[in-house]
Amino acid sequence: MNIRIRFQILFIVLISSHFGKTQICTDLIEDSSVYKVSMIYDDVVQLMYQHSEVLSVDILGFSEFGQAIPVLKIENKEKRLDKKPVLFVANLHAREFYSSKFLMKFTNQFLLSLKSDSCIYKNASKYLEEYIIYIVPLANPDGLKIAQQDWNGIESHREEISKIKRIGPYSDWKANGKGIDLNNNFDDGNFHLKHGRLFEEKPASQGHKGSFPGEAIEAKLIQNLVDSIHPLITLSFHTKGDVLFWADRGTHTKFRGLDTKLNKKVAQECDLIMARVSQKPKDYAAGLENYVRAKTGSIGVCVELSKSNNKEAQNPPSQFLDLVWKKCKNLPLIYLDEFSRLYPEYADLFD
Fold first, then answer.
1. What is the rounded average pLDDT for all residues in the chain?
2. Would you state the pLDDT for residue 227?
3. Nearest to residue 153, comparing CAs of 90, 219, 92, 63?
């Protein structure tokens, strides 16, 4: 990370006496409401102060419109140094706040479980003996604000935003604030081939990959994070389809079946679909998961949360608990459990 400003410096104004101690196992994240950028910031700060012994928070950088992109790091600082880094990312696509809510809810419950085995994740501390967990819950704050028509903090950019081609209502906004689809803007070596389903030559609310890889500040920052920590597993959380996009023709064979075994286990346990191995770079290229697999040789998966609804917008906030949390609350740890079990056989892949 190039920018390592302490998160509490930026958000110290949010800290006040109403932040009392959370009861063991009490959920910080409300299940049925719209999850706004300000709520995510507040929850990150509260988690940081409640779990400072294992959780540190930094600023990965700032969005195109100057909004902070926090990165959370969960680790047991007293254990051995040779731990495996893993990365979980949400909100690359603006309208998909289900992904941020899922990742923040998982983070909260995991941290609570470290303090009590009576919480959701039994023996949570065992994971920190082997892994360091990095979490980016808000990769696209400008886009999320636009999708929710929350102009606070980006008001000065309203005219600029209004000039970007809008496909559908603001609630369908998928791109960042500059009209670039972040998950089409990573430098996986196939950016020049990328076409996609709704390709737009110029900036748009969805379907524009950008003029060059890493053009979007947010994509570049996450790419830099990947390069810095070299996560052995990266999970990129999105919304809709109940499907795992886990492999492409260009990288699949080098994993010698590890990627198949990992994702098959998760699909079975969480009732998800494993997509076919993607064949054409013009369709699959330039996503975060593709960058991870192509440039770092590590496992990268796009996890689509919740069932399809034949609409651009995600499912209603009121359905988050049933469609996402109940199905997938164990998903991140299933990946880690299975990776731990298989790692000795495949350790040479990550040397």
1. 91
2. 97
3. 63
In the 8-state DSSP scheme, what is residue 116? -
Q: Per-residue confidence at 302, pLDDT binned at 50, 70, 90?
A: very high
Six-digit token pair at 282?
Answer: 């013009």
Identify which of 217, 256, 240 has the alpha carbon closest to the alpha carbon of residue 302.
240
The domains found in the chain, sorted by start residue, are 26-350 (3.40.630.10)
Q: Give the pTM.
A: 0.93
- 153 — pLDDT class (breaks 50, 70, 90): very high
- Tell me the mean pLDDT in the region 315-325: 94
- Residue appearing with tokens 């996450």: 222
User: Cα(130)–Cα(151) distance, rounded to whole angstroms?
Assistant: 42
Q: Which two tokens stand for residue 192?
A: 């020049």
pLDDT digit string (tens) for 240-262? 999 999 999 999 999 999 999 99
Cα–Cα dist 172/96, whole Å: 9
Cβ proximity of 167 and 173 under 8 Å = no
Token duo for residue 56 = 């540190």
- DSSP for 178-194, please give it: TS--GGG---SS-GGG-
Helix extents (H) in the chain: 7-11, 37-50, 97-115, 141-147, 158-162, 217-229, 258-270, 281-284, 288-291, 320, 326-328, 331-346
Of the candidates 350, 351, 346, the residue with the CA atom closest to the CA atom of residue 257: 346
